[in-house]
User: Which sequence fits this backbone?
């Protein structure tokens, strides 16, 4: 089964969480995702696509509604 996924790039500063200092400018590969739950489809969310990640992380605010 073929699916078309729209991807886009974002260039923004990467900020250190502790010191709130810009570390460097980064390029992120993003996509818009929706998740199916018992209540229906979630609202569209921007997601970072990590092509080298062995797992996917879904934010707690999405999966707790499941």
Assistant:
């Amino acid at each position: 089964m073929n699916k078309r996924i729209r991807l886009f790039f974002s260039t923004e500063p990467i900020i250190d969480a502790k010191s709130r200092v810009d570390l460097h400018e980064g390029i992120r590969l993003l996509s818009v995702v929706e998740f199916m739950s018992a209540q229906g489809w979630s609202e569209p969310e921007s997601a970072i696509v990590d092509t080298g990640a062995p797992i996917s992380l879904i934010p707690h605010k999405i999966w707790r509604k499941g």
